[in-house]
Every structure is written in C-alpha cells, then in structure tokens.
Write a structure and sequence with these properties.
Protein name: NADH:ubiquinone reductase (non-electrogenic)
Number of domains: 3
Strand order of the largest sheet: 1-8-7-6-3-2-9-21
CATH topology of the largest domain: FAD/NAD(P)-binding domain
Distance between the termini: 35 Å
GO molecular function: NADH dehydrogenase (ubiquinone) (non-electrogenic) activity
CATH class of the largest domain: Alpha Beta
Largest sheet: 8 strands, mixed
Shape: globular
Catalytic activity: a ubiquinone + NADH + H(+) = a ubiquinol + NAD(+); a quinone + NADH + H(+) = a quinol + NAD(+)
InterPro entries: FAD/NAD-bd_sf, FAD/NAD-binding_dom, NDH-2, NDH2-like_C
Keywords: FAD, Flavoprotein, NAD, Oxidoreductase, Transit peptide
Structural class: alpha/beta
C-alpha cells in the first residue's frame, strides 16, 4: 500500500518558510528517515524568486571510481547533490588481488563515501543508501528501493542525472559459472575467496582425506588472462606458498592454473610485458593454459576446451575464480529501453560530452564502465565540417584536424595518427581515385568515423571522464563552449605478485626491477583518494613483511 507522508511534507514546508529556504533538503531528510512503504519526493518553492535562484538537483547513481571523482571535482556550492547506491563505500578495485591474498586489510582499499565527500567538499550533499531500480526520463524521477528494507521505496526527482553504476562480471551464459565460480568485483568477493582458500587447506589437512580429494581441494583455477586475472594469480601463488609452509603435509598437492582464451597473457600490454608475466608465473609453478576456454563449471571441477581443436578436458578443482569479461547491469537495460537510439546491448551510448543519446535536453549523463562514447559523425555534419575547414577536399580536412578535434574527438591526435601505415595507404588509394573531391572527402570522413575507438573500461578512463563531466557541470552545462571529451592514455601497470611489476607506456615499457615497482607504488599512492588509505596500505605492507599474513578462518558459508 502506498503511503504519502503529507504530515512530514507540511512540517518540512513550515521549517522552510521559517528559514527562507527551499523545501528540498528538509523534505529529503524527513522522508528518508521516516519508515514508510512508499515515498514520493517533489520539490516546491514558496516564491518565483526562490524558484529562479534554486540550485539544480543532481542525482548520481553509484559509488565507484566515476562517482567518487565526479563528486570530488564538483562545485557543491552550485548544486543540490544526492548520491544513490546500495554500497555506502568506495572500493579501490586495483587492490582486490592483494586483498584476496591477505596482504592488505579491507579498510585499506575502501573509503566510506559520505565521510569522504563531507571532508573534501563543502556544500549540499546527501547520501541515499538504496538501489536504483528504474529511471523515468520524462518525469525526471529515479525509482529506488532501500538497501536495508526492500519494502521501502524512495522516488527522487532530478534536474540532471549522472549514471555511474559500473558493470558486473559476465558469465557469457557458460553453465555453472554463476552457481559455482567466485567473482572479483567487490570487497566481499575477495574476502570470501581468501577465507575459502584457508578453509580448503584446513579441509585437506584433516585425517582420512584421500590424495585425490587433497589435489582437488588445493587446485585453484583462475579464468581470464587480463590484468585482474594475472595480478590475482601472482598474489595467490605467493599466498599458497605461505600456506604450504603452514601446512607442510599437503604442500605437494598445491596447484594454480590460469586459463586464457587468447594466445598470450596481458593481451592489452606489450609483447615484452606478456613474456615477462609468463616467466614470473611459471617460476611460481603456475600452470598457464593459453588458447583455452572454460565451457562449464561444476561444483568440484571445471571443463576447458581448446579453442582450435575443440578438445575438452575436465579438471578437478577446489576453487574457480572468474576474472573474465564484464556485462551491463539490469538498470542499464531499463534505461536503454526508454530511447530508440540506444541500440547497443552492451552499454549506454553517450555523445562526445558524455550526455546520454536520445535525451535531447542533456538531462542524463553516463560515465565509466556502463557507457560507450559514440561521438557525432563527421559524415553526418558535412556542411558544418566543410565550413569549418574552408573547403570540400580531403587536404582541407587534414590541414584542420586540430581545429576539428574541439568538436569531433575522432580526429584528435590521441585517436588519429596521420602517419599510421593503414591510414597512409588509405589516403594513397583515395588520391588516385577518379571520384570528385566532395565524394573523396565524404569517404575520408566515413573512414575516420569507423576507426574511432572509445575508451576502454578502466579506472584511469573512468577518472578522466568524471573530472571532465564535473568541470562541464561547474561551467553551467555550456555544451557548445566546451571541447569534446578526449581520453588520454597515460600507460598501464600490473603487479604480478610481490615486487614484480610490468608497465606499458606510450613510448616505453618496463619489465620488473626496482624502477617498475617504485613507479607502480608511486602511481597507486597518488591514485588513493585519501591520506588514510595511503597510511593503511603502507602500514599493512610493513606488518605483513615483519609478521606474515593473518591466516585465520571466520565462520562463513562458502557455498555458491
């Protein structure tokens, strides 16, 4: 039954009249903390002057990388901000592999969201501990369900909505993955895996356990040879070595396997990085399976198929850790359903200013893993482009790439390299064609549009998008006067367990050594959003080095 809290609204209105302020902040506080089955929040104003001067209501969905850095860079004195999420803390996800191995504690890679915002930003801010279940872009309402009581529903109005909900692990429809595999997206996942590893060692050490069962319990399979999978494999290999010292009777049964569908680990890094990672993991006795795909996961095993021959092998194992691929949340699909132009099933399509395509009024934006940037096409704005470059020939466009990059990110130096062999070959073929110059220009535009690569779903890009969007908001949503978003790849780092680090940068790469480790440590300490997190990380590292890992199990159900 829906209950409208009229008395609470009247009380809030009275307070607002006394204070000479808008209803918004007081109403939200009263409605949110009052136990009700259904809450509908609307904004009202006591005068036209108040309506003219009111702050825009900004609602942000999520407490991940995108949300944190958007709020951190937003001028809260200009806006009335509400952040909605079922998770009331930020997770520094690159540290999850170290949490899995017990090298750090939970507090080291988490930050309470509300306290962080209140410490770093001054202004109107409210955190709503709830899950967003749908969005009404026509009424500009966000429908939420309380994280603590599923029977309590809250509707939040907005002037601008920022969707930063991230993505979830993709099972690719493979049988048994959702039921039996362990994922690596949240702090809870990492803690459960750590406890499960210790529990399996204790189980294998019990009297009467067969050798076959010991081998199964102590065989850990990691699926996915990307940065998350490789980093986790390296950390777990070190943990299992420590565990073997504490459980010497079962040390000979320990085995770690990493499964990758491609032909090398760290496919987005340099070849040298991949080869170094292979050597480091092999030295730690990790079984590396390349060109293999997991086709089924059982309660006590997983089945691997050769991508070339189709031959399958079933491996008994105690843990399957899934670190392969992402998919969109159900909420993203619901938002997509409101707009015909949202025809990408994998992400929300946004323009070069991160505004959701189809809204028209720029009232909804999306950042991070849940979106894909699709800039305006050159070919669809031929008249505008030809006017800007002062001609209708390919040469005119090539002379004005820097000018056009303000509006079209696909021609920026980060996305288009005029010296790229494939691009040079295309231009040579175009120059000897007998087509009129205008048709050649259109063909060149189509080629450039088709070559655009949107930013990869990484923490680095999520941060860049969020800072850009916050600055756009701070400048009063001046879309026409703001340059298009251009991601800048600054390089990638991966820790392969212990002090082994690889780095892939625009002009060089690093494979191990003290320089790579110091660079990795410096970058991560800089990326930490708070001084407390830096202190905790250094403290955990020191304690672990001096006294070892805290190898205890908690009372926990490990069933999937």
């Amino acid at each position: 039954m829906e209950v409208m809290l009229r008395s609470s609204q009247l009380m809030a209105s009275s307070v607002c009249c006394m204070k000479g302020r808008s209803l918004n902040t007081y109403t939200y506080s009263l409605l949110y903390f009052t136990r009700a089955r259904y809450v509908s929040v609307r904004r009202t104003f006591s005068s036209t002057t108040e309506q003219r001067d009111h702050k825009q209501r900004i609602v942000v969905l999520g407490t991940g990388w995108s949300s944190l850095f958007f709020v951190k860079n937003l001028d809260l004195s200009k806006f009335d901000l509400q952040v909605v999420s079922p998770r009331n803390y930020f997770t520094f996800t690159p540290l999850l592999p170290k949490l899995v191995s017990g090298r750090i504690s939970t507090k080291t890679c988490t930050v309470p969201f509300s306290s962080f915002v209140q410490k770093h930003r001054k202004g109107s801010f409210n955190f709503v501990h709830a899950s967003c279940v749908n969005v009404d872009p026509h009424s500009k309402l966000v429908y939420c369900v309380s994280a603590s009581d599923p029977n309590t529903r809250v509707n939040l109005p907005y002037d601008r909505l920022v969707i930063a909900v991230g993505a979830e692990s993709n099972t690719f429809g493979i049988p048994g993955v959702a039921e039996h595999a362990y994922f690596m997206k949240e702090v809870e996942h990492a803690n459960i895996i750590y406890q499960k590893i210790i529990s399996n060692f204790e189980q294998a050490s019990l009297p009467g356990i067969s050798e076959e069962e010991k081998r199964r319990l102590l065989h850990l399979v990691i699926v996915g040879g990307g940065p998350t999978g490789v980093e986790t494999t390296g950390e777990i290999a070190i943990l299992l070595n420590k565990m073997a010292q504490s459980f010497p009777a079962v040390a000979s049964y320990v085995k770690v396997t990493i499964v990758e569908g491609g032909q090398r680990l760290l496919g987005t890094f340099s070849l040298g990085n991949s080869q170094y990672a292979d050597r480091v993991l092999s030295a730690k006795d990790v079984n590396i399976l390349l060109g293999k795909q997991v086709c089924a996961v059982g309660e006590n095993d997983c089945t691997v198929k050769d991508a070339t021959t189709g031959e399958t092998v079933t491996m008994p194992c105690g843990i399957v850790l899934w670190a392969s691929g992402l998919k969109q949340l159900e909420l993203v699909d619901k938002v997509r359903a409101h707009f015909k132009v949202q025809n990408n099933p994998r992400a929300l399509l946004v323009d070069q200013h991160l505004a959701l395509r189809g809204t028209g009024d720029h009232s909804i934006f999306a950042v991070g893993d849940c979106c894909k940037i699709l800039p305006d096409k050159l070919s669809e704005h031929f008249d505008e482009v030809s006017k800007a470059i002062g001609g209708t020939t390919p040469d005119a466009l090539l002379r004005n790439l820097k000018t056009l990059s303000w509006r079209f990110p696909q021609v920026s130096s980060n996305k288009l390299n005029p010296k790229d062999p494939a691009f040079v070959e295309f231009l040579n073929k175009l120059s000897i064609s007998e087509k009129p110059p205008k048709e050649q220009l259109l063909e060149l535009m189509d080629y450039i549009d088709s070559r655009y690569m949107p930013p990869f779903p990484t923490a680095q890009n999520a941060k860049q998008e969020s800072v850009y969007l916050a600055n756009l908001f701070n400048k009063g949503f001046n879309i026409q006067g703001t340059a298009a978003f251009n991601d800048v790849w600054k390089g990638s780092l991966a820790s392969i367990g212990g002090n082994h680090v690889v780095g892939n940068f625009p002009h060089f790469s690093l494979n191990g050594g003290i320089k790579a480790f110091v660079l990795w440590l410096g970058v991560y300490l800089t990326m930490f959003p708070s001084g407390k997190m830096r202190f905790c990380y250094l403290g955990d590292s020191l304690v672990q080095t001096l006294y070892g890992r805290h190898l205890i199990t908690k009372q926990h159900s490990f069933g999937k």
